[in-house]
Amino acid sequence: MITLRTVTKDDVVAYWELRLEGLLRNPESFASSYEESVNQSMQSVMERMSETDDHYIVGAFNDNDDLVGMSGFIREKRLKLKHKGLIWGVYVTTDYRQQGIGKKMIEEIVTRAKSIKGLTQINLSTMATNEAGIRLYQSLGFETYGVERKALKVGDVYLDEHLMALHLE
């Protein structure tokens, strides 16, 4: 059974190990790179972790309380952008894929976001080649509003990115 809860500073080691796994196994899915991230200290990782209504990481934990999936949310801070939030860093470890965990994490974020006063839109981006992810996000009401050509360069390969939004109103 999978349990969803906010990833806390007590989970920092498990979070960082899963994050690095994602960066290493699926480099095309993240703007951050494994090479840039691997040498960060636990202290610097912990300093960036927040546990507020406006910034958090939803974790999917198995029966052994192992972190097997994660997805972050952050609300824009600037006055003219505060009506928007961003989903980032969606990742489920290989052995737990195709079980609906990603969908449950995104649903949890959307549910929480709906209770944030003044938040009317959630944005995310996903690689144009991530057909399963695009279908998942569309099934939850996200719509593609643009495609950024050559958004990422992994090695010698340029990758396009779908920009997607869910309007909460």
Automatic annotation (TrEMBL):
GO terms for molecular function: transferase activity. The keyword Protein biosynthesis does not apply. It holds the Pfam family Acetyltransf_1. Keywords: Transferase. This is GNAT family protein. Its EC number is 2.-.-.-. Residues 2-169 form the N-acetyltransferase domain. PANTHER family: L-AMINO ACID N-ACETYLTRANSFERASE, SPORE COAT POLYSACCHARIDE BIOSYNTHESIS PROTEIN SPSD. Gene3D superfamilies: 3.40.630.30. It is an enzyme of class 2 (transferase).
